[in-house]
Amino acid sequence: MRIYRGFDALPHFRHPAVTIGSFDGVHRGHRALIERLIDEARTIGGESIVLTFDPHPRVLLRQADGLRLLTSLDEKAALLEQSGIDALIVIPFDADFSSLSGAEFIERILIGCLGAETLVAGFNHHFGHDRCDCETAVAGRMKVVRVEACTVDGQCVSSTVIRRLLADGRQAEAEKLAGHSLSYD
Questions:
Q1: Which of 31, 62, 74, 117 lies at a C-alpha separation of 20 to 30 Å from 38?
Q2: Could you tell me if 110 and 73 are in contact, meaning their C-beta atoms sit under 8 angstroms apart?
Q3: Is residue 8 a contact partner of residue 161, using CB atoms and an 8 Å limit?
Q4: Residue 54 three-state SS
Q5: What does the longest C-alpha to C-alpha distance in the chain come to?
Q6: What is the C-alpha separation between 84 and 49, in angstroms, rounded?
Q7: 14 neighbors 45 (Cβ within 8 angstroms)
Q8: What are the 10-residue block averages of pLDDT along the chain, 185 residues in total?
């Protein structure tokens, strides 16, 4: 896996299939999304690219009161590398980036910088400060693949749910949703 910080020194990617998110904890839901990303990339003879943020967007947007991340950036990168993706792009999440609309993000980043041909997104994923819908914003410019919610024993898997379980001292349940051990001090 190659790791890039920002968009200034990116190579030309071959038929890029991309997904984007915070990926805190790289849990079972994230891995389902990444598995689909890798499958889509292989189908078109392309590369699988994950975009993530540093710092977590909630930190910059001042919505992080009490937020305890499940993984550091290094831990996240290691877990993503184990998944078999081709490239990880770490987006420096700052005030300028946070002000992009969904349409601007798609035009400037996904199409302009990456040349994305396929976007793999979670069932509830939206882009930009205006929470733009993927299908609407892309409008036929690239293939959009939606991945349904992941559940384990009837429980929807999310970083928020895992954090809540850990805060309640329910480590084993949290790790079952994560699909790996967690150190959450």
A1: 74
A2: no
A3: no
A4: strand
A5: 46
A6: 10
A7: yes
A8: 95 97 96 98 98 86 75 95 97 89 90 95 85 75 93 94 94 96 77
